[in-house]
Amino acid sequence: MYTLQVPKLHCSACAGRVTRAINSVDPAAEVRTDIPAHEVAVETSLPLADIRAALEKIGYPATG
Predict the structure, then answer these.
(1) CA distance 35 to 49
(2) Residues 6+ apart with CB under 8 A from 3
(3) What pLDDT score does 64 carry?
């Protein structure tokens, strides 16, 4: 499981975009967002770089 900091995660619409972007590269991924903490937890078999790239592509760069 990866826990990422996503500073631009501010609302439920943002959380939906982030979740859809991750599920577009791994439909089986489990995604949990914590809007107040600006965190996204992802259970996936993909490398972290693939998840970060998917988020970067939609304008939500992540660290962690």
Answers:
(1) 22
(2) 39, 40, 41, 42, 64
(3) 81
If pLDDT is split at 50, 70 and 90, which confidence band does 7 have? very high
Tokens of 8: 């631009």
Beta-carbon count within 10 A of 46 CB:
16
CB 21 within 8 A of CB 58: yes
User: At the topology level of CATH, where does 2-57 sit?
Assistant: Alpha-Beta Plaits (3.30.70)
Domain boundaries, the chain: 2-57
Q: pLDDT digits over 16-64, tens only?
A: 999 999 999 999 999 999 999 999 999 999 999 999 999 999 999 998 8
- Residue 36 and residue 53: Cα distance in Å, rounded? 23
